[in-house]
Amino acid sequence: MSKPMLKSMLALAALFTTTFLTAQTQISIDSVSSYLGQHVKVCDKVADTYKAAGEGSMTYLNFGGKYPDHKFTVVIFAKDLINFPFSPVEHYKNHNVCITGMAAQYKGKSQIVARFPAQIEIESEK
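RE: above sequence
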């Protein structure tokens, strides 16, 4: 696949994702586990961020407390970091954000996997 074609496909995916994400049910970080398998929107403050060492490592945005006492996590897999033109760890740290995606659970903790920056919107200061 050529580079221009790949860029076009990524742009279309981002456009589709942005359009799809605007019509989601907004829930609190405390109720994510009640919506497993459903597309939802969760808004709260990023309490802690972390990127594990190594090339194939994941990035974590934790909400409702710092790891391991957090209530909810946004996970960005290493393969998806190419879609982020910035460091998610620095960009979202200490910001109020809204994340949209499929509610899931991993080892008893609620999470959403983010593949594109369009899934994470920084809320304006109130």
